[in-house]
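Run thioredoxin-dependent peroxiredoxin through structure prediction, thanks.
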Amino acid sequence: MSGPRLSAGDAAPDFSIDGTDGTPEGHRTYSLAEFRGHPVVLAFYPADNSPVCRVQLAAYSNSVRDLDIAGAQVLGLSPQSVESHDAFATTQGGYAFPLLADRDKAVGASYSILGPLGFYRRSVFVIDAQGIVRYAHRSVTSLMYQPTDIIATELRKLA
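Sure, done. The structure for thioredoxin-dependent peroxiredoxin is below.
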């Protein structure tokens, strides 16, 4: 279901999908291109409200200052709707970054993170200010996520 495996050194595929910053006023379309000039962390997660996803996104949100190296923007992506993301963020007390709705999994496919049955694999990509993937990690089981210190180390390499 995924295309060729995207890896470090490849151009990051652009996208334009709906998302939310957790407020009703924050619903809008987000694109990777709008963040050009700044590093971006794409955190793909399988599902709103799943136990590991709650822990992962809370860890990233609590450490967003550590990830704000050179103006980096964190974006969370999953295949649930914007409405689901709003409910998820509300029940968790909010997140310090937008959650994007990859409803048709096209972004997941372009980043080669879909598993054999088309499910999202928990994955993290660090993209530099020019739009080049500098770090790619895909979880095989989706039970583990990349800790913020590893992501911060990769971001520091771009500074």
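The chain has five helices and seven strands.
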